[in-house]
Amino acid sequence: MTSTANDIRLGADIGGTFTDIALDVRGTIFSTKILTNYAAPEQAILDGIEIVVRDAGISLADVDIVIHGTTLATNALIERRGAKTALVTTEGFRDVIEMRTENRFEQYDLNLQLPPPLIPREDRFTVKGRIGAQGQELQPLDEAALEDIAGRIAAGGFGSVAIGFIHSYANPAHELRAREILARKLNIPISVSGEVSPQMREFERFNTVCANAYVRPQMADYLARLQIRLKEMGAACPVFMIHSGGGLISVETASEFPVRLVESGPAGGAIFAADIARRFGLEKVVSYDMGGTTAKICLIEDYVPRTARTFEVARTYRFCKGSGMPISIPVIEMIEIGAGGGSIAWVDAMGRIQTGPESAGSEPGPACYGRGGRRPAITDADLVLGKLDPDNFAGGAIRLDTSASELAILRDLGARLSLDAISTAFGICEVVDENMANAARVHAVENGKNISDNLMIAFGGAAPLHAARLCEKLGIDRCIVPKGAGVGSAIGFLKAPFGYEALASRLTRLSQFKPAEVNALLGELKASAEGFVRTGASGTIVCEITAFMRYAGQGWEIPVPLPDKPFGDDAATTLKDLFEANYQRFFGRAIEGLDGLEIEIVTWSVKATDVRPTTARHDLTTGHRTNEPATTRAVFDPASGEPRTYGIVERDLLCAGDRVAGPVVIVERETSTVVTTSFDAVIQSDGAILLIRKGSQA
């Protein structure tokens, strides 16, 4: 299939609370939000599709491509709802996923808690056979033992198998042979680490293949059901998935490597924010995506989200690297906290208000939904503070019960803290906003950045309610709430290119660099990456080559972008110069004066993407027409600490160039933008809302 700018494209994003649908009919967006159906996640997609195709006046048969992202894989890992999985590994390495790296991320915590391994010890099987660090066979694979292991797995009622052998990133021959032997007796999915994550560091690689195997049966079953149901509804188009690195892959690839989908929804949001940044020529942006279950912060420089080769799921300590379950795949780098509209508010043993990570989700939902939820969520606090209109939530599709919110807040928090409903609700929102501000500061500092230097782009159903207050805490003077912000990730899916990143770890010192061998390796990676992209695109493909390099003896590497051309005889000198320039950019200066200090390459990466249409440029305007709100309502004002009269404006009634002075609430179908006293709002030429701090030079 060839993707063009004139395709009718449909994006579907399953979140923990809402499922968002966005339909692009030749430049016109139709969207809706549906409560996520946990029992049958595909049903919310189908219900949403019916709404948007009806609104657009087309049939599902007219849609050219469906692009889907989901948090189902993430939730299965966090909630431990995957298949019963067996791990087959090298003798002596049975406990790698439990011993981890033995790093104490909290040095003085005597009760350190780590996520338990996905696969318990009794379900891990070992076999003799050894591959060396250079890919050479040191000990042959014990095939007879594998036959016996296959019988034990078959008798054990397992639903999936993960194979992780030492040094298989350098030579996967033993893993591939083991899969052949096991497959003779087993009719269940078998994942091998050399295909899932061919990278150095056995703990991360083993854990990643375990995670892939753990969620694979569930995701394969779900994706098959979705395709069948779409065809039954009349869809004739292909379905593609957005992966954690921000590109599109086929459903078949996603079913085989579902771990690549773990951050697919948030990746769509980062793409959406990057597209907005490119549209307005904004080189330093922080995206803020707050939905029903989580909030995500991502730094975007030069219109490109920051990326990484590993990330963590289910951290047991907020913001602490090393406290979660590492997944070693290409991913858009962001920090994520359990602070969404459905996150539960509670009081800890010290009498402090806390929020999340537990979420009310869509079932039973916050107390105000009237679906059986009794515990107070952030949405309940927003409603009590007047940020939400109980009669016009989700376009009037869900009527909110303010009295139920007040009752839940008072019962679970207010009574313990001797506070009234409004004061307690304000405390809940302040804790949420402060937690998100801290997360943004930590993320920026870890990347050597100053968060206040960025413009914020806020999207997701809940982010526009909190964005202005978050900007106040972070010292950010400008914030954009794009058109379609409530379904931003789903719109981001529509902007995503077909893309795939292939990696391979080959530890090579520059003094031993062999251009012919590296050119052959990169040729294989390029063919692999382009092969995945060609399943959905037939146009021009561009490749980005990256070497992850370090000084010998260092524990981690830095990415060094390279030109897409074969290496010649002078490659070692060129790589040294590029490494030192990037090292200086990262750390301020390169290391000098140490004779014989070697530079080495750890991992090679080839990222292939198809070329997408360029984004039309717009200039930011500060407005030239003052718009006076026609109606008002009482909204709690954080600056004065009491309810205050806020203007209420329908977003659809505002035109480009209109400026509205805060305090005001700008309402639309999928979200509301709260403009606090400190800000004014200006409508941009593309319909986006620009919040500008009063008195700033922005």
UniProtKB/TrEMBL annotation:
**What name has this protein been given in UniProt?**
Hydantoinase/oxoprolinase family protein
> Where does the record place the Hydantoinase A/oxoprolinase domain?
205-497
Hydantoinase/oxoprolinase N-terminal domain sequence ranges: 9-184
Superkingdom, natural source: Bacteria
- Please give one Pfam family short name: Hydant_A_N
The species this protein belongs to is Mesorhizobium newzealandense
**Which parts form a coiled-coil structure per UniProt?**
none
Q: Which segments constitute the Acetophenone carboxylase-like C-terminal domain?
A: 530-683
* Matching InterPro entries: ACX-like_C (IPR049517), Hydant_A_N (IPR008040), Hydantoinase_A (IPR002821), Oxoprolinase-like (IPR045079)
